[in-house]
Amino acid sequence: MYWESTNTIKMIHRLWGAILVLVILDPSSLFAQRTQDPEPFIVGVTEHIHSNVLDEDRVLNIFLPQGYTADTAASYPVIYLLDGSLDEDIIHVGGAVQFASFEWIKWLPPSIVVGIANVDRKRDFTFPTTITSDKEKFPTTGGSSNFIRYVGDEVIPFVEQHYRTGPDRMLIGQSLGGLLATEVLFKRPGLFNRYMIVSPSLWWDQMSLLKQEPEFVVNKDSAPEMVFIAVGNEGKGMVGPAKRLAATLKKKTTIRVGYAYLREFDHTNNMHRAIMEGARWMGSTR
Residues near 50 by Cβ (< 8 Å), separated by ≥ 6? Predict the structure, then answer.
């Protein structure tokens, strides 16, 4: 019995010795080995375009739905995302849209997400203000009219020329982007048939935008189908105007309006949750 135990111990020692030699000669032998070289993980493309309206070069980051190819007849809704730079919202919103379009969820259909990258968001997302302190603090502001022309007259036609798009278009904007989305809704509502407006900075210019009559009140044919508005725990200056916007839309139009107060989130972290809540609401009203 002692002899068998001794032999077993010797065999174990020899085995560990062989493993030790193998590790010293080739440490990678302990780990999984590549079967081929790494490949790019591609979820979309980046387009570089020149805007004649803005007289500058611009970038579009385009998140493509799974299975998208250029040589089939299928077409897709398009979601236009403000603050769409790579270091802003395009990646997480693209992922949220993919999740919301999974077969077992179906809050949204598979969609193309066009992230409109920024150059100067304070310039592009704001209309001129009468507030002297804001003019001094943000000297480049007041260019939203040109930016809306850029989106409507250049970005949308470019995307529809080069990608397989359907008639369904949505605009998503948060903070100053929410202000811009609200201005589009009021002044050129027919550009999109669905809107997600998150924490809109409607305080801009003493809430003068909310005092204007939306275009779709006069021209009912231009009214979009759905508007979803969300705001976090951000104080009266943000929550009040957002609630007022939702109430105005419900009172003056037949637009389907959704509103969410995200009590556990604030201005810095509510965007992703708002997108998911908006997608779920839109899915329930389709």
Answer: 56, 57, 58
